[in-house]
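tokens incoming
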């Protein structure tokens, strides 16, 4: 399986002020950059994650969103959604990110990336777009994009092939994990075979939730 990087995006130092009852800032407003971008263990050179409690870290170092899913939203909302508008670092084509298997590995440029998790939309996402009920609509759609950890550092650039070089046998997809987290929580035990691939900061929490549901038989 293979796809392509359409754009590489970072937020840089220009953080987006978000209107609220108190000052609020976010690195969600990412923009395409030219040339090749260095990728370290914690993400792309020049990128920013403001709230490190919920964003970034080893298991959310890179975020990918598919052009095919962006096109769906463009038609749904009647507006252009250029690369970076979802807060993504990589805008891809040719890959079904909802169907990506947790733990599958991508060769992108000179890096090796591993799919770790789905993206759960937050209030900043809704305010950034200025679309009422966007979080609920995004959840209902279920095309969350994919978080990735960096197994081998290197660099990436627009036009790079994305080659899936390994896919685990468990078959648990980003879409299944997203549903288990959100609209189908009763299915949480089904994602147990993929827990080892989750970001370190959420792994124990999700494992505990799965154990509790399994013990309760729900």
């Amino acid at each position: 399986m293979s796809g392509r990087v359409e754009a590489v995006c970072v937020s840089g130092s220009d953080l987006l002020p978000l209107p609220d009852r108190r000052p609020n800032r976010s690195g969600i407003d990412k923009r395409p950059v030219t040339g090749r971008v260095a990728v370290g263990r914690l993400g792309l050179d020049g990128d920013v994650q403001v709230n490190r409690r919920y964003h970034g870290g080893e298991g959310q170092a890179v975020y990918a969103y598919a052009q095919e899913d962006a096109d769906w939203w463009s038609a749904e909302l009647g507006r252009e959604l250029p690369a970076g508008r979802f807060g993504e670092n990589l805008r891809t084509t040719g890959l079904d990110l909802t169907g990506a298997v947790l733990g599958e590995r991508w060769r992108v440029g000179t890096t090796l990336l591993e799919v770790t998790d789905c993206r759960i939309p937050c209030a900043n996402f809704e305010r950034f777009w200025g679309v009422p009920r966007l979080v609920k609509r995004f959840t209902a759609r279920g095309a969350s994009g994919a978080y990735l950890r960096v197994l081998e550092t290197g660099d990436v650039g627009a036009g790079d092939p994305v080659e899936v070089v390994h896919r685990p046998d468990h078959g648990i997809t980003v879409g299944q994990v997203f549903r288990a987290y959100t609209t189908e929580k009763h299915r949480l035990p089904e994602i147990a075979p993929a827990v080892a691939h989750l970001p370190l900061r959420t792994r124990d929490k999700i494992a505990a939730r799965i154990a509790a549901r399994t013990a309760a038989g729900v």
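note: The first strand starts at residue 2 and ends at 10.
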